[in-house]
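Sample pair:
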Amino acid sequence: MLNIKEISKTFNVGTVNEKTALNGLSLHLEDGDFVTVIGGNGAGKSTMLNAVAGVWPVDEGRIEIDGINVTRLPEFKRARYLGRVFQDPMTGTAASMQIEENMALASRRGALRTLRPGITHKERTLFQEQLRILDLGLEDRLTSKVGLLSGGQRQALTLLMATLKKPKLLLLDEHTAALDPKTAAKVLDATDRIIAKDHLTAIMITHNMKDAIAHGNRLVMMYEGRIIYDVAGEEKKKLKVSDLLEKFEQASGGNFANDRMMLS
């Protein structure tokens, strides 16, 4: 479903601020893979997701989604294949619009625009069914303004909206980092259920090593723009945080230094 072949990206070329963010990175995801990605600050995690989404072009390499070469496609054209949830809960929804209006925008994404007014009964029933998956009581608040929801409720709604059209690939960029632990756990639980229900292929960046181990069927560790550890299946399930720290030190030749991840 995703094939990244030796992509490289360097920012501020030829200046004192030159930074190689991706260094010949390759990654292959099968249909239905749910990959968690960890790594220290500057490892290239978000740069990789932005490269897949087309936020900026890569300098070298190739990116394929479901067998289609999207390497040179602009961001708006790649959007038809992708669902994306960002770290900030305020990013993915329109605060001044109702829950059902936000969901209607997501469900009609890519469809031919018409002059038919409002939201149909069929759409409203579908939205209620989808919202029940979140287990947050939002199915009874369809006409509530999204701006009245908590950060966790908005992020869960954003997740649902990003997956309504069953994207080829779901990109989760630290989507629980801004939430308190209890709310983050609820959103992660909803993430697991939605991905499993729709058999989605997903990449989740996280700074929390325990979450990286507990969720998904595969874990990838990045360092200096490349993958230094890739583990899946039963081996992943048996991992401990201490194992990840040891693997990092073996692969990088140094100690893991990232306060944010260590404190998690």
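The chain has ten helices and ten strands.
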